[in-house]
Amino acid sequence: MASPDNGSQVPAGTIAGSMSAYKRRIRRIRIAGILAALLLSIPLFLYEFSEEKTQLEHVNDTGVLRIITFNGPTTYYKNGYGESGFEYELARAFADSLGVSLEVVVADQFSEIIPEVLARRVDFAAAGLTITEERNQHGMFTEPYQAIKQQVVYRSGTRRPKSSAGLVGRQIVVTSGSSHVDRLSKLKSEHPELDWQESDTETPETLLIKVWNNEIELTLADSNIISVVRQFHPQLHTAFSLPPDDKLAWMFGRSNDTSLLDAANAFLAEIRNSGWLDSLLDKYYGPSSQFNYVNTTRFLERIENRLPEFEDMFRRAAEDTGLDWRLLAAQAYQESHWDADAVSPTGVRGMMMLTRGTAKRMKIENRRDPEQSIKGGSRYLRLLHDDLPVRITQPDRIWLALAAYNVGRGHLEDARILAQKDGASPDVWLDVQRYLPLLSNPEWHQQTKYGYARGYEPVQYVNRVRGYYEILSWYDDNRKDTVNVINEIELPAL
User: Fold this and answer.
1) Phi, psi for 34 (deg, rounded to 5)
2) How many whole angstroms separate alpha carbon 178 and alpha carbon 181?
């Protein structure tokens, strides 16, 4: 029987059955292919999961360390000379140690800082945060780098609260999200009638200014912030401290990955052991310890009444020497209170209190001429600055130069040698200032080349110049607003 030709008919059921079988076969092939692809991808997925970068590796790969902070005198601020602030410098040093750049995110409100950390939109908070039980439940802290006290602040001339009981019935405003809220909440258990307001828009610094302006009665602030702000607003006073003392640290989001936190702790341990952390603390908080209400208010008054006559002279001297005119002005105030005719019992005279020998060396003919005196003094300071070993870095270099200006290069060198013999650094002002006072002790000055000196004087001299410099820098950066500050100062009689 012959096979059917191309025109022969095949039953419809046969065709439908064949197509159904074909589709089932194709479906089986597709499913098998998908399963095979999934099986093949599992090892790759597991490999990628196992190779997920740590926080430290991520920072190193991107080359950026991202922190969050807020504007304040102890945290982060910008002026005509760039970025500054204790927290900023500390975080920048950490970034430098990792070999990456620092990116600073400035929170609009203090209460935004911790949520940003917990949401992992930044690497950590460098904002002078107090370690608290509640914060520890959500985040992780480095080892502390500073101890502070929470203090109640009022303005002179107003009623001082003498204890926590004295806070009842008073107008108290604190920053939302701050540890000060926690402290007041605990006090409320002892004093149920205690009440306060929380501000989302104000920082501890701006609340201190409001106290100074008599806009609010009281606020709580950390002692480190108070010490800085009081340099410029000496009418602020602390009523009392709230125990216990607190500790400040960097805050990270809670995670099983502690690689970046561990690196930060290692960095903090290193700078603590090297003494660099103490130097940084001294840079920002050292000068504030030298001032009280009287000398601060008098200095602010003379900025307004005496400095304008000589400011251009200081600026010209700064152009001549490369030194900051505000530093030169601060030094001149310490020397003579900007009195061109000043004369000391030892015969030094003029604005920069030049000796006859120094004036001759600097080619100054008339020590009582303010422009000549400023020029001679600034050139001599620059000479002392440049004569120091090249390895000494700023700001220690300029502090040591100022000490030499006051006590003489020979005595300064004696103190540096004593520091080195005792295992301290001869190149760090924080170390050298501990040995300068020993020059008045026979047990020590008999070991030196240049002998006896009143070594406590250059220590006080440098620290006062530093304080005046800080105040003058603040005044220069806030010149328009400062006029009102000056006008409200009440000076005691001379």
Assistant:
1) -65, -45
2) 6
Note whether 128 and 75 are within 8 A (CB).
Answer: yes
User: What phi-psi label fits residue 159: left (phi over 0), alpha (psi between -120 and 50 degrees) or beta?
Assistant: beta
Catalytic residue list contains 311: no
Q: Which two tokens stand for residue 5?
A: 């030709």
Q: Annotated catalytic residue: which of 202, 205, 217, 335?
A: 335
pTM here?
A: 0.69
Q: Kindly state the average pLDDT of the residues 116-143.
A: 96
Total structural domains in the chain? Answer: 1
Q: What is the pLDDT of residues 336-349, one digit of tens each?
A: 999 999 887 667 88
What pLDDT was estimated at residue 77? 83
Question: How do residues 99-115 score in pLDDT, each as one tens digit?
Answer: 999 999 999 899 999 99
CATH number at residue 368: 1.10.530.10
- How confident is the model over 433-462, as pLDDT tens digits? 999 989 988 888 888 999 988 888 898 899
Residue 253 in domain: no
* Distance between CA atoms of residues 250 and 268, nearest Å: 10
Tell me whether residue 494 is in a domain.
no
The verdict on residue 43 lying in a domain is no
Domain that residue 364 falls in = 296-487
Look up residue 47 and give its two tokens.
């490999």
Distance of CA 287 to the CA centre of its chain: 14
Residues 6+ apart with CB under 8 A from 371: 313, 316
For the stretch 267-293, pLDDT in tens is 999 999 988 898 888 888 876 666 666
- Residue in 114, 125, 118 with CA at minimum distance from that of residue 177: 114
Is residue 402, in this structure, part of any structural domain at all? yes
Mean pLDDT over 301-307 rounds to: 92
